[in-house]
Amino acid sequence: MVESNEKQRNLGSSAGGGRDMGIDGHRIENGVLDKQNDGNRLGNCVSGDELFGENERKSEKDNGNPSADEISGGSRGFGVENERNADGSYIGTEFFIGGGDLKSEDGGELIDSSSDKVEGITAAAAERNDQDFSVIEIEKREIYVQDSENISSLEKQDENHDFDESPSVNPTTNGEEQFLLPHSLLPKPEVPKGLLKSPSNGEEFHPMERSQSLSENFPVDMPSIGKYIRDRSNSFSAAIVKRISSLKETDDRKSNNPSNVTEIHLSGLKVIVQLKKDENRDLGLKGRISFFSRSNCRDCSAVRLFFREKGLKFVEINIDVFPLREKELIERTGSSSVPQIFFNEKLFGGLVALNSLRNSGQFEKRLKEMMGRRCPDDAPCAPVYGFDDPDEESTDAMIGIVRILRQRLPIQDRLTKMKIVTNCFSGSEMVEAIIQHLDCGRKKAIEIGKELARKHFIHHVFGENDFEDGNHFYRFLEHEPFIPKCFNFRGSTNDFEPKPAAIVGQRLTKIMAAILESYTSEDRRHVNYIAVSNSEEFRRYVNLAQDLHRVNILALSANEKLAFFLNLYNAMVIHAVIRVGCPEGVIDRRSFFSDFQYLVGGHPYSLNTIKNGILRNNRRQPYSWIKPFGTGDKRLEMALPKVNPLIHFGLCNGTRSSPTVRFFSAQGIEAELRGATREFFQRDGMEVNLEKRTVYLTRIIKWFDADFGQDSEILKWIINYLDSTKAGLLTHLLSDGGPINIVYQKFDWSVNR
């Protein structure tokens, strides 16, 4: 219990009405009195803030007494206020610890400390605050101050601690009790604006808006929050200063460095940016270099590499991507052979002319002579983005009937075999619609229905039959539930007459090969996916992929089918990285390889179904118990009859540890697969440590060990695709009869960009 008659006390007032008050280096939070060191310290408020916080309100509520809000209309606690009378004297009222009555600033009674109200408050506070907390009694003491001399004498008296301990009656002026000044050693109270009348003109201030207190169940550690904000602010300020200083240093280096090399210093990283030289401008070239090319042309690749090494800007016109430009090539050169190089409108020649001029050392001189002026209008123009070639496709003969059926058939959700099938119609309804439209017999209408099913305009909802009259349910291809996952479906099915699958596959392969030649590194291990997504070649590829909707894959030979699905897999991976993004975790990878699909030949194909269902003859993927195709799936007819283990080194899944991305031709598929396998093992797919008798293999072999056989068989098989050094080391390990350890390398799932 804090005694009311203590000789030494430190009493502090809080200006601005804050709940926390600092006294002698300490502060009181939420109205709790902290008893430490030399005396008791009490934090008080000025006109409107809480004395005991939530403890006081709770104790008042528990004892059935009205709260301070109910007594004084929202003013709680106690404070200090000073006013000047008409004669210039100060009048003050001060509340002390002890007994007495509390008065409001207009003289009204707040709390009678001798009553049961204060006792209820103090008792509840004592019961609640049982850890080094003191119960507080409030006493009022009033002193009348006449002038400044009395104020000084009062301060001296307070310094000598000669206060009369007996309660006294406050003097009043005009019937109003006034407040005394606080102790001279304590900070002077400053009344916040908006709480009192102005002492100069007596104008009324509007009350300040106060935020409501948090509930007692909401713990807030104000010192921790303040410290956190200060730390973050200091860190942020330091980062800004550091960044500004680095920019200044960069500007200084730029001014002193004629090579235009910029160094950017980041935390733990040093980045050096060097601007590319514009050789065209350095040589004084004003014209344009352009050349005609084809995909997978070695001479064209040599010309492209030469210009890149020289740093010369050029425009490439690939006639496999832009077939209508072949006519222009023939008109300008009299031949369709490539490459053909043009300096402005003048024909320079092919690779032979370029090599002869380069070997003679006259290339730069000849280049300046032919390109010293701006490019005229009659020079070969650069390809323009967004313009397609005129359509040469013919409309399907059945499209007229299909359009009528789409309008007339009652497409509804139906219940069959205890399942609800969506967006379907019955076979009998379609037969009746065909008879009504063509005015033909029922047998003829059934034949037309079967033809529509063969061309993949319609499918049975369960894939049980092609088409039959009766109560069998069918749906149009665009209403299939897998359509939203097909990224080559753009609003409607391709209603043109389906092209042969071999021709469609060749065109897609040529476009994707042109993309690799223009937007990948020389070794094809890094792909610039952003540049690919913004290119005209990729836009044309996406449009051409719609021709896969209703192609007849069964017409392909074994080699054509192998090349078709290998190329389709690699093209879909590039499309998936651009449209879906890079898989970062196990769940994302499963979704990446299963949910990204193409509509091919009337059926959906994901990356997993192509690799494990078609190329691996419907074998389970790693860590899965389910085969890609179930019994009765029409896609089983497309599966290859025999698994070729070389396919694993021709498929690129868009990661750094996967084989290099490439595309194959049906004529040389076997030789190209062997070359891809040899390149993979010679690069980093296999290492031999003779001292440890350990062979390090790619993890692809572990995942698909069913395709490669036992460990001893795998090592013998790999020898055929190794260079002489690795083959000799592995042969030595196999021939001495000792044990060989096989360790599988860690697979890098980061994207190959």
UniProtKB/TrEMBL annotation:
Which spans does this entry mark as compositional bias, Polar residues? 167-176
Q: Which PROSITE patterns match?
A: DEP (PS50186), GLUTAREDOXIN_2 (PS51354)
Concerning Gene3D superfamilies, the annotation shows: Glutaredoxin, Winged helix-like DNA-binding domain superfamily/Winged helix DNA-binding domain
In this chain, the stretch annotated as Disordered covers: 1-85, 155-176
Q: Where is the DEP domain?
A: 405-478
Q: Where are the compositionally biased (Basic and acidic residues) regions?
A: 54-63, 155-164
Source organism's superkingdom?
Eukaryota
For this protein, the record's Pfam families field holds:
DEP, DUF547, Glutaredoxin
Query: GO annotations under biological process?
Result: intracellular signal transduction
InterPro entries per the record? DEP_dom, DUF547, Glutaredoxin, Thioredoxin-like_sf, WH-like_DNA-bd_sf, WH_DNA-bd_sf
Its name, as the record gives it, is DEP domain-containing protein
